[in-house]
Amino acid sequence: MPTNTSFHDFHKGDNGYTLGEDNARPQRTAIAPVGNPTTRTQFTKFVQRWLYFEVLRAVLGHLHQFDLLHFIRRDTEQNSYITTERLPRYLEDWLDFESSNPAESVARLLQAQLVLDRARRYVFEYCSVSDVHSRPIWPIDDHVALSIMILGETLTSALIKIRRQKHMNIHGWSDNDYSSQGWGYSRLVLQKMRAERWCLKTITMLQGVLRNNTIGLLYALQIPPQEKAEISHLQCTETECKPVAIPSTPGSNIDLQNPEPFHCKECDRRTCKEVQVNSRELNRIIKQGKIPLLRYRHEAGKIDLVEMNASCNKEYVIFSHVWADGYGNKNANAMNKCVLDMFRNLFNDIKSENVIQQSHGRMETPENFWIDTLAIPVETEFDDQRKKAIRKMHDIYTNAKYTIVLDAGLMSVDKGEGYIKPAMSITLSKWMTRLWTLQEAVLSKSLYFNFSDQVYSMDKLEKLFQQEDAPLHSCLAFVSRAYYHGILEKESRRMHGPDSTPEDRITKPAFVANVWKAVQWRRTEHRQHETLALATLLNVDTDSFADSSYIKKKKMIYDGPELQRRMQKLVDLLAARSPCAIPAGIIFVPGPRLEEKGYGWAPRTWLSSKEVEPPDPLALQVKKARLNVPHGLEVWFPGFRLHNLRNKQDLLNDLSEFHFPADRWLSQWYRVIPADEKEPLPHRSRDRSRELAIVAPQLLASNPKEIGLLVAIAREQDGILFVEILHRIYISVEGDAEKIRVWRNDFLAEDFGSLSCGERLSTEQHWCIDGQQDNQPLKSFITNGNGELIKPLSNKNRSFTESFGLRVSNTFHSITKR
Prior knowledge:
By secondary structure, the chain is of the alpha+beta class. The protein has 3 domains: about 5-185; about 275-540, no CATH class; about 580-818, no CATH class. It contains 23 helices and 27 strands. Strands 16, 17, 18, 19, 20, 21, 22, 23, 24 and 25 form a 10-stranded mixed beta sheet that branches. It has a 5-stranded mixed beta sheet with strand order 12-10-13-14-15, sandwiched between helices. The longest helix has 24 residues, at about 35-60. It is globular and about 85 Å long.
């Protein structure tokens, strides 16, 4: 059992091991060396005592009835096991205690926050794994690691709820966002998912969507993904899904790339006929600048076309679907009769629901509908009309009365009771992983999900959230709500709410940033579709991308350069918005970047499947940006200018980390390490005369690592630093007093080694971020939507910096490995 040592001192040497603040390797004090089986058992006990029992004591120990023995049970053979049976009651007592003793409540809650933050950092870095093949840094038992993660996420969720009820939110102390409540991923859970034949790509995407929450993954295991056919995912990787169909009968052939047209379960396929739209009439309506709506006549088995003018003066429903489920059609604008009958039944289901709510004055559900399979031409001869139809898709989605989601997985399961099960089912659905469906969700006024037993509105589902999120001992409702965040429902409410204005529909940096975060975990089978889908969602001109949806065109090859050209065009269109719609924080996001001069800061794809590191740079909406071709993206961020202290031109060569002070008293030191896994800081073989600098989203005031950019300064003019991105980095305030003492002594002894001095720059330092700079004269221009240079920009006043106290030569200053 744990001793009376406090949580913060437990790891400092009196309990078998010593752990430094930034030391992943435990140091032995009184037991066998790390590495043999005995040591693994002993170290597991040490970690369990500290990060499980001492965390419990530190957070709940002030309660009068608290006893650690309540969290241990013994069987008939006196074997000990952890139990959390009494934890829910303890958490309720915690809330009661804080309500009854408000005088010192702030101090207690802040102390609990400090304990959970430190414990989470150790667990996340040393017990968590990134994928099924990884091993945690600490050699502890996987079951113990899982129990610590579950306890930590439960206590963190409870603390946030208690703080919320106490209306306590101290900036810098009690900030918890959607991404900071998970404690990592258990190798045990990931291995279990893989053993149950989950796709590695799906697992990776789910990890990102659930934001490091292992309780969410555990619950997801109870709702396995639904497959229409027997599918093997043994060939899948973390970055690519490579499903292989296993025929149910010998000799049968299942083509996953070209799925068979969808049929209802009750359908008699021998009599079910395909119903086709009159293509000539369809294209006539589109050519006249109108929008074709559809109305199905069940008795006649025909589809009528209904003309709607550009003002969208008719009510209609949109059906949102996944192509792989068989609702698409490459050869003609047609669908099976049984599917159209299903649409008709869904209309009746929604009508029935609205009849119950007719006291609110709601109108009868319209029977006009729109679905891309039937309303966007597919024949080669109507290519121009196809592009015209695509240009209107943003307005079509925005003005629909309802959107009904058709997903094969959801349609094969009952909705279930309450909030958690249906919400997690939606989160796990294939519909949530596709790029095209995002625009339909975000731009829709009202969403309905079609389960096997009922069609259910998201509004109705969300009314259950607060009730099921109330218990302190459960964070499942919050985790299951990942679907809500993933379809940007708050953005949709802003655009479609009763108080919305035309201003709310303008594409702004905040909206673009949220779209990037929602898109990063989605995918599309055809990479050329990415820019078209994004342009439609962001309401910019789709003319340059409309041909990408015509997948039937012969020998259409979308290679790397073509994809980059399209992404560059999308950047130009966003930059041409007034104000510029590019979020400044996009320079910090992970993934490959564009290669074209002036665009080296921009992501090559938004489908990165990579997490955004804290602090969320895309949440810094007060920061502005503007595109300045060919010089790059102009942004205003704080940072450091690095000065080498050795009169020597060395390369930054395969360095794993470096450190620098930022004041003349040598009291505050910073640590820099690569942010992208398994990549050392780069070998810079270009111009050796360039200085180095660091661009940071915000001024660091705490120890946890934060994202930043290591850049090389190409030149400086009028206070603007023109820089080339070398590497994404983590930068943190060094908290190890012993390390600081050694570095200070080296610095004073002029034994600089890899040490540099950092000159703190203005909080509004003006940067021009490119990735490819040359020495051509500065011409400050911005671009229009076609990438053409237009009006000149006036030079801003030269920014001031806080001097380090030492000025060194402007010749090249680098960092060398010590």
